[in-house]
Amino acid sequence: MVPASFPALTGLVATLVPHAAPLPWYVTVIYMAAAVSFVFSLKWLNSHKTARRGVKMGEIGMAAAILATVFLPEVRHYNWIIIAGIIGSGIGILLAVLTPMTAVPQQTALSHAFGALAAALVGTAEYYSQYSHLTPMHTGAIAFESLLGYLTFTGSLIAAGKLQEVLPTRPISYPFQNPINLSVLALAVACGIWMIVSPAHALLYPLFMVLSLLFGVLLIIPIGGGDMPTVIALLNSYAGLSAAAMGFVVNNKLLIIGGALEGSSGFILSMIMCKAMNRSFLNVLFGQAKIEKAAKADDVYGGKIKTVTAEEIADILDGARRVVIVPGYGLAVAQAQHATGELFETLTARGVDVEFAIHPVAGRMPGHMNVLLAEADIPYDHLKEMDQINEQFDDVDVVIVNGANDVVNPDARDNANSPIAGMPILNVDKARTVVVIKRSLSPGFAGIPNPLFARDNCLMFFSDGKKATLDIIQALKKT
Amino acid sequence: MVPASFPALTGLVATLVPHAAPLPWYVTVIYMAAAVSFVFSLKWLNSHKTARRGVKMGEIGMAAAILATVFLPEVRHYNWIIIAGIIGSGIGILLAVLTPMTAVPQQTALSHAFGALAAALVGTAEYYSQYSHLTPMHTGAIAFESLLGYLTFTGSLIAAGKLQEVLPTRPISYPFQNPINLSVLALAVACGIWMIVSPAHALLYPLFMVLSLLFGVLLIIPIGGGDMPTVIALLNSYAGLSAAAMGFVVNNKLLIIGGALEGSSGFILSMIMCKAMNRSFLNVLFGQAKIEKAAKADDVYGGKIKTVTAEEIADILDGARRVVIVPGYGLAVAQAQHATGELFETLTARGVDVEFAIHPVAGRMPGHMNVLLAEADIPYDHLKEMDQINEQFDDVDVVIVNGANDVVNPDARDNANSPIAGMPILNVDKARTVVVIKRSLSPGFAGIPNPLFARDNCLMFFSDGKKATLDIIQALKKT
Amino acid sequence: MSTTLASNLFVFILAAFLGYEVVRRVSPQLHTPLMALTNAISAISVVGALTLAGAGYGHILLITLGAIALACAMVNVVGGFMITDRMLKMFKKRKEK
Amino acid sequence: MSTTLASNLFVFILAAFLGYEVVRRVSPQLHTPLMALTNAISAISVVGALTLAGAGYGHILLITLGAIALACAMVNVVGGFMITDRMLKMFKKRKEK
Ligand SMILES: NC(=O)c1ccc[n+]([C@@H]2O[C@H](COP(=O)([O-])OP(=O)(O)OC[C@H]3O[C@@H](n4cnc5c(N)ncnc54)[C@H](OP(=O)(O)O)[C@@H]3O)[C@@H](O)[C@H]2O)c1
Ligand SMILES: NC(=O)c1ccc[n+]([C@@H]2O[C@H](COP(=O)([O-])OP(=O)(O)OC[C@H]3O[C@@H](n4cnc5c(N)ncnc54)[C@H](OP(=O)(O)O)[C@@H]3O)[C@@H](O)[C@H]2O)c1
After folding, report:
1. Which residues of A touch D33 (CB under 8 A)?
2. Residue C64 domain-assigned?
3. Which of A306, B74, B167, C74 is most exposed, with the fewest beta carbons within 10 Å of its own?
């Protein structure tokens, strides 16, 4: 069974079967406790009051599981563990401390890459240490782990690159894109099946690995920056599934549970994102970028756009009792969260009731806007979900839309022929006055004009999101 | 190892190890699918719209699991299966079809007895077929299964007897009750541990069995009829746990899942019941019946009770726009649900807005009132939970309390020295007029007078719950 | 701890948590059908009784125990689902007139 | 199907359902911390990397793979929990003045 083509490795076959020995009972008990702690950790994230306790709980479970593992009898050499542990923890600390909140989406994508790579590498090591006596079941699990791990690794790197704008954010497309991508996947799967049939074939695993890595790249490059919220959630799910697959390979139920929890969490988040954009998974993943021309922009806007200055906005705000601010992708780009926090304080100090209306897909990842605004010290009870506030816009004096566009496009609601018809939107057009801060009339992600801007009650303030906010605060201080 | 004292059984040792052989893969898949179907079955019970679909789903999973098991290779003789299957199904159909809705609590208690007995008997059979080569782990699981099974069996029978009023519903107490009960439990546990140490001792298992049966009786007889909602929920939980224990014994994960689902469901329900009575588990199980005298009844009621006739009630109802009916334990005793349904129709036909306010512990088991009222064709959107309606009583013209007492006792809210202080109640005293239907001034389960009856806005109609309701309908038809 | 016991415990813990999360959202209106339904579901223990009653070898006493257990469990399998459905059928929304 | 695979599948299915039930109730306000937290939790795969990197026997290549995997997983273990807490710390209620 052991082929001559793996000369260097033949010596170690059948030596590394760490999971074949049953665990000491106390380790099993600790693993169970860790699994329970993870469940509580997520449960407690339900509410702001218990959320930080949840993090503690997860940390305790994790620490206990790691310690129990380190002192297992089969773990005998600590040099590598210490070195790798220090390096990994160091990078982790740096990433956690230094990442600005606007860059959390990239950081998250990077973490998915790290997690998936870990799973993939363990799969590779398992394969090479045991290929001569693998059962089909075991090879299948290793193939699954490696495929998911490697594709999530490259896919997440591409996503991080797009979010960091190191790579172009617009969709990259080429002829026969979907057929080519699916062929690569089919080839990888074929390799995997072949591996299950004859695990010891020398070239199969490397080929399988390269195809998986390649598929990860091909899967993400055609997806535009605007779809990143869904894609990050999906990669979250994949990263979890690859960890769970590792659990099947090394036969450790704690890994399976930890991975499955992330797997379903990512799955739910991508469902929520898709629903909030009224699109299907398949459309996000394989939908070609629409090349429709937004030709009617002039028809929509022609002669109907009213602009305002910061001073005029300050005058309008001066008479307002209730103001709602709608943050969008542009607010994150402009890094305007602290300025927005200051605007919130200024208005609140003047007795105005200020709230924030947050669309589920606003920003660059699920929940991103909330984190940014929380960073700017805005109390979370002023951050309202779409469903909470959508009925109340009639009653709002001024809405300030900052760097949002598609999520406040009334066409999604009113015009059944619009490309974004059916997407749930914030009904800001029902407010008495709407002030829109953006740099130009250029469209948002969907690439279509927004009839809101032409409405009678809508005033445009063409400026950068941060500068505009600071200007309004200045003007307010003068009134 | 095989002692001479089991002559008749020695022949079968080591023959009956059905779970030692791994299951065929398709059976495992079917078991997994069945587990998933059970989860969906419970999930869909969340809402009225999907609830019946949930029952279908559970039935399909159950049927598939049974069929897969019947065709297992180790199942070879079908005579007993067919006979027992027909008898069991027959009894099941009869119970399901013939049980009147007022008797559902008894029927539920009986089902717990059946389920627990099944688990206990399988545990007994497992023990006797394998006692000579039991591992401590396995004996432990069998002991757990038998203990839970037998105690739940007798406990549920006692509960059913009390609910059917075959047995006295008042708490039966004797000196040193708790020490005696706990000693019986301790003895049983000691037997179990001894069995783990030396499984083949001839007298241990029978003794263990008798002690478990006895403890079940002793556990339930001191508990009064009024605490039955909690006790039924607790027995529900135990029945589930004994089924799960059977899963450990025969090493079948589907049994473990099915049992665990019932185990936690019963646990939640008993928590809800305890909370709705502002009492602790331990207090329900081991609290001695209070012998406090309700001496102040005369002080509370003296000269302040106003009675009314059916005609006067009809007159009051004639002028009402919004009526809330509060059903209680007495409504179930009087079997007044259909009369109440008729009253609902009559009032609704006259343009009155009629709702039902249902306290979580009203009736004889969790949710019992809702089932009774649904049986009387009252639409479920008119059945309101305590929290939904409690703020709205200011706005109610007439409240009709039928056979409820403690759950509308304002002392629980206002008088910190009351024995039921802190128990959440329905704030019926805030309504314009309260009509109370009961047979006398005798107290409810808590044994204390109810100052509500002496309030200015409270009118008493002393009569049986059903007769009173029919009288009111008669009188209404004449106005 | 044997691997079998360990994996059974993992399954038990997860199922108990899952039951908790799923059941706590059932409305109080349906608590009675809920009890009947969980009772029917845990009657899946019929599967254990089946292998006992159908083994056909071994002592007649054991087979009798198995058969009684089977009958008891079948009462709940059949009766539990039927009475749940019977109760649920009674819950109706206000009919439009 | 091997018993091991079967029990692992049971655990996976239950954990996935449990995750679904628990996570779907997390408020959209906390979706970003949720992602960071689940990412930290699934970094429990560090346990698999540990046995690999610490085995000490076998080929140096395998140990290197294990060590890299360990480092990668540790990034998420440490970084994931820390950044989750950092984000959660920022969410404050309106301070009374
Ligand atoms: N996949 C879909 O079909 C779809 C559809 C809608 C939304 N989405 C998702 O929803 C997300 C957000 O929707 P959204 O309404 O918030 O964003 P959006 O529709 O993409 O619009 C963002 C707006 O921000 C403005 N902006 C950019 N940089 C700015 C700066 N520095 N200062 C001020 N304004 C700036 C842009 O206008 P200027 O260039 O004129 O400044 C742009 O119109 C997108 O990221 C996407 O994920 C997806
Ligand atoms: N454990 C506790 O501390 C505690 C406390 C309160 C409630 N609970 C639970 O709550 C449940 C119900 O509370 P509840 O307020 O509904 O009941 P309750 O407080 O026990 O009162 C029931 C009332 O129904 C009346 N009644 C009995 N038969 C009747 C009939 N045929 N027609 C008309 N009325 C009749 C009785 O008064 P008459 O005899 O005068 O007719 C009695 O006052 C109890 O079953 C118990 O489980 C427990």
Report:
1. 45, 51, 367, 371
2. yes
3. A306
Sign of CA dihedral B117, B120, B125, B128: negative
ipTM of this complex: 0.90
Question: How buried is A88 (Cβ within 10 angstroms: 0-12 exposed, 13-18 middle, 19+ buried)?
Answer: buried
What's the Cα-to-Cα distance from B468 to each of B334, B439, B461, rounded to whole Å? 10, 10, 8
From the list B364, B78, B348, B45, the residue with the least C-alpha distance to B228 is B364
Core vs surface per residue B1-29: b (16+ CB within 10 A) or e: eeeeebeebeebbeebebbeeebeeebbb
Q: Is residue C75 one of the residues assigned to a domain?
A: yes
Cβ separation A32–C10 shorter than 8 A? yes
Helix (H, G, I), strand (E, B) or coil at B54: helix
Indicate the number of domains in chain D: 1
Tell me the CA end-to-end span of chain D in Å, nearest whole number. Answer: 65
Residue C96 domain-assigned? no
- Tokens representing A115 are 């997690």
Q: How far is the C-alpha of A103 from the C-alpha of A471, rounded, in Å?
A: 25
Two tokens, residue A348:
């609140």
Query: Which one of the listed residues B315, B377, B394, B406 is annotated catalytic?
Result: B406
Ligand nearest to the CA of A226: 1
Q: Specify whether B387 is catalytic.
A: no
Q: Does B384 touch chain C (CB under 8 A)?
A: no
How far apart CA B255 and CA B300 sit, in angstroms, is: 55
In whole angstroms, give the CA distance from residue B356 to residue B325: 5
pLDDT one digit per residue (tens) for chain B, 479 residues:
334 344 444 434 333 444 456 789 999 999 999 999 999 999 999 999 999 999 999 999 999 999 999 999 888 889 889 999 999 999 999 999 999 999 999 999 999 999 999 999 999 999 988 877 788 888 999 999 999 999 999 999 999 999 888 988 788 888 888 899 999 999 999 999 998 888 777 789 999 999 999 999 999 998 887 788 889 999 999 999 999 999 999 999 999 999 999 999 999 999 999 888 888 878 777 765 554 545 477 788 888 899 999 999 999 999 899 999 999 999 999 999 999 999 999 999 999 999 999 999 888 889 999 999 999 999 999 999 999 999 999 999 999 999 999 999 999 999 888 888 888 999 999 999 999 999 999 988 878 899 999 999 999 999 999 999 999 999 999 87
Residue C84's domain comprises: 29-91
Structure tokens given for B392 = 């709205």
Residues of chain A with CATH 3.40.50.1220: 297-478
The H or E element containing residue B110 is: helix B104-130
> Using an 8 Å Cβ cutoff, are B254 and B35 in contact?
yes
Q: Are the CB atoms for B72 and B196 separated by under 8 Å?
A: no
- D13 and B32 within 8 Å at the Cβ level: the answer is yes
Looking from the CA of residue B445, the nearest atom of ligand 2 is 20
Query: What residues pair up with A355 in beta bridges, in sequence order?
Result: A324
Q: How far apart are CA A413 and CA B464, in angstroms?
A: 58
Residue having the nearest C-alpha atom to atom 43 of ligand 1 = A444
Contacts of D39 (CB under 8 A, 6+ apart): A108, A111, A112, A115, A236, A239, A262, D76, D80
Q: Is D39 domain-assigned?
A: yes
Tell me which residue has tokens 């059970």.
B38
Taking the CA of residue B439 as reference, the ligand 2 atom at the shortest distance is 41
Query: Can you give the C-alpha Rg of chain C in angstroms?
Result: 18
CB-based contact A396:A429 (threshold 8 Å): no
Sequence-separated (6 or more) residues with CB below 8 Å from residue A226: A329, A444, A445, A446
Q: Does A16 touch chain C (CB under 8 A)?
A: no
Please identify, in words, the CATH class of the domain defined by B297-478.
alpha beta
- The token duo for D80 is 């994931």
Closest ligand, as measured to the CA of A333: 1
